Amino acid sequence: LTLENKQKIVKTIPITSTSNDVDVQFLPEGGALIENLPQKIAVKSINASGRGEDIKGMITDETGAEITSFETSYLGMGNFVINAQPGKNYTAKVKFKDGSSKDLKLPIAQKSGYTIAVNSLDTAKVVVKIMASESLVNGNELKVVAQQGGNVYYVSKAKMDKQVLMASIPKKNLPIGVVQFTLFSSTNQPIAERLIFVKNTVDLIDVNLNTEAVSTIRKGKSIFSFDATNQNKPVFGSFSVAVSNATKVTPDEENESNILTSLLLTSDLTGYIEKPNYYFLNDDVNTTKALDNLMLTQGWSRFLWKNVAAGAGPALTYKAENSITISGTVMKGGKPVPGGKVMLMASKGSFFILDTVTNADGRFV
Question: d(Cα 90, Cα 93) in Å, to the nearest integer?
Answer without folding.
Answer: 10
